[in-house]
Write a structure and sequence with these properties.
The protein has 184 residues and is an alpha/beta fold. It is built from 6 helices and 7 strands, in the order αααβαββββαβαβ. Bound molecules: 1-O-pyrophosphono-5-O-phosphono-alpha-D-ribofuranose. Keywords: Glycosyltransferase, Purine salvage, Transferase.
């Protein structure tokens, strides 16, 4: 297979995974590496369901148009919340594809420093989903980029808040509510 053909297949797969609908997340979770046992998908879906319920009861809850998850750790939680909430989702990828209308922001920790969210965000109410927050730098960078693109960030959902960092305080300074499943 040529490099061009491989690139086309990768781009198609990213596009299909990145703008999802609620009928597909379970099948995608089964396809992802590391989630192969019979019970793991159920646990992932239960976590997404619980996180979604907590957000619905949160005082700062507002409706959203789309979920936005972060590659890589945020992908599975995003699928799970999508399934629980019946929401469409997108993924911000650490893959730079030659596609129009991409939002770029900087990830302060990863080896690949730039993250790309494809498509239009102007006028969209976006609920961000990730696996964990520590310093909050990653998510505030994303919030700033989304707002610059004309999006309305309704909140951030994370599975885990590492309270050794100041992520919650940083998000509060940016007036973004944070809802987490558990703290560490
Ligand atoms: O609150 P912060 O201090 O910014 O850290 C949180 C970020 O760190 C992790 O990503 P990581 O860089 O490890 O990338 P990964 O998801 O690809 O593992 C995690 O998934 C968050 O996105």
């Amino acid at each position: 297979m040529t490099a061009t053909a491989r690139k086309a297949i990768t781009a198609d797969r990213v596009a299909r995974l990145g703008v999802g609908d609620t009928t597909r997340p379970v099948r995608i979770v089964h396809e992802l590496d590391g989630v192969r046992s019979d019970t793991a998908p159920d646990r992932v879906m239960a976590a997404g369901d619980n996180l979604w319920r907590l957000w619905c009861e949160h005082p700062a809850y507002r409706p959203h148009d789309v979920l936005l998850g972060l590659d890589a750790g945020g992908i599975i939680p995003t699928l799970a919340v999508s399934w629980a909430s019946g929401s469409h989702y997108r993924i911000a990828w650490k893959i730079n594809l030659d596609l129009p209308e991409k939002l770029v922001f900087h990830e302060p920790h990863a080896r690949r420093l730039e993250v790309f969210a494809y498509g239009r965000f102007k006028g969209q109410r976006v609920l961000i989903v990730d696996d964990e927050i520590t310093t909050g730098l990653t998510l505030t960078n994303l919030v700033t980029a989304l707002r610059s693109a004309g999006a309305d960030v309704t909140g951030v959902l994370c599975l885990v808040e590492d309270t050794t960092g100041d992520g919650r305080e940083l998000l509060e300074r940016h007036e973004v509510p944070l809802c987490v499943l558990t703290t560490l």
